[in-house]
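At this stage, I put together one protein's amino acid sequence and its backbone structure tokens, which the following lines show:
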Amino acid sequence: MTAVRITRPAWPADEAAARAEQDRLRSEVRLEGVAAADVRLIAGVDVAYAKDESVVAGAAVVLDAASLRVVDSATALRPVEFPYVPGLLAFREIPALLDALAALSAEPDAIVCDGYGVAHPRRFGLACHLGVLLDVPAFGVAKTAFVGSYDAPGPERGDWSPLVDGGETVGRVLRTRRSVKPVFVSAGHRIGLDAATELTLALASDFRLPETTRQADQLSRRALAAAV
């Protein structure tokens, strides 16, 4: 039996329905909740696409938040059934991610997505979507900014600056390694920006990206390579 409670909604068939679904679910987002110190098990999720983008491999990796040791992992393959539309990538990726999360035996206290939470044109990125569907704390850590403007943070690990869009702070531009390009942190659901920032730094002790993302990225690529 899965450790993660999975909700599988009816999936939109086109762009208009997908945007309407984002608008409907956005009202359920809560940008406060779990404290970083209360997160003992933390999951990273990521996907890999076949070259022709006909198949997507989803991966979920659960780490011990203190030691960064992998305690559980799972993968799932799905046909890609939604077109590529900026701002709607969750509808291509979530089905495979839900399958992978459903196969876990360890229940994570929070999920880190390789992408965005509220730092999204409709304030409802992948981390918001997964968090609301699963009712699990979730946040995004992205390599680049999707929306907003910012000043470069200081050069030291832990330095950050606000990511601002339309006069609203939607995330943080966080330096995880000294003098290395920053990452873009945004809350998704049931977690605030302070806790998301603290967890990101704890997960990125040796590399620019969180270990959750690194592990999930590698696992999704291996699963795809083994299947296609």
